[in-house]
Amino acid sequence: MSTHSTIALLEDRVAAVSRRNNRRLLPSRWKIPIYAFVLSFAIVLVMIVDPYSGAFADANVAPSRWELTTGSQVLTSDSTEAGSISRGAFGVHSAPKPVTAPAAGIPSPGSAQAIARAMLAAQGMGDDQFSCLVSLWNRESHWSVTAANPDGAYGIAQALPGSKMASAGPDWQTNATTQITWGLGYIKARYQTPCGAWAHSQSTGWY
Prior knowledge:
This protein is mainly alpha-helical. Helices cover 47% and strands 7% of the residues. It has five helices and four strands; from the N terminus they run H-E-E-E-E-H-H-H-H. The chain has helices at residues 3-48, 112-122, 127-140, 176-191, 194-204; strands spanning 67-68, 75-76, 83-87, 90-94. A two-stranded antiparallel sheet has the order 1-2. Strand 1 (67-68) and strand 2 form a beta hairpin. The longest helix has 46 residues, at 3-48. The termini are far apart.
């Protein structure tokens, strides 16, 4: 075999080996881009779908009670008051649910209810708050200035003890205006509004 033939044969063998090596390296060269694509897709998928609960949060669905079930993402609330609850780095906050009462109507002039309605109007409160107040004090005393309870509660607002109303006037035992003044002050300090007091009374039986 001539030298030229030997060189040509060696060149052919080197080319064949090079082709085989290129075929082997081709898959390895694409491994990193493929892995990167799969990882990126998985991260996007996790951000879209909650893998733990299989559910989506819906801001339009009102919870029915404040309770976080252990080991799940279920939050419900039936509280009429504002509240919040958190788990890990996530938190849910709720504004108080609106509370209403049956419409009270227009009271008779000069009656205790008429006095209360005028006082509420002077404080910028409308008939929705007046209706809550009527429902609340109907339950407490039926708007009687002399309503007395064996536990010491007295008057329209059922102050306990009744003598607390002396801070609103010396005639607290018989004067509807004095009793209502004290009662509205008590409600404002503790519940902000009559509907706030009515909501508490609805859930607990007292205010």
